[in-house]
Amino acid sequence: MFLIVAAKALVEIALLAGVGRFILGLLAGKPKEQNLFWQMLDIMVRPLHKTVRAVTPGAILDSHIPLATNTLLVMGWFVLTFLKIEQCVNGAPGVCS
After folding, report:
1. How many structural domains compose the chain?
2. DSSP 3-state assignment of 84?
């Protein structure tokens, strides 16, 4: 149960960093690369973008990689949430208290 909760927390942090990076990029406009907060969020999600770029076909544009990353994170979040609920329902008494 601990591993599921820890993995879910990491996915949530990465997902929020990706969404925050997107929103801040919209608000900051073109000079977003010079924004300190955008750079911090970019550092958090850059390894995920590189991983998704490595496993996706070359036909996918680089500008679509953040969307693909967030889509995979949302799918992972749903899977982990389902596993957590399953553990709570089928687990021993007191597991989810």
Report:
1. 1
2. helix
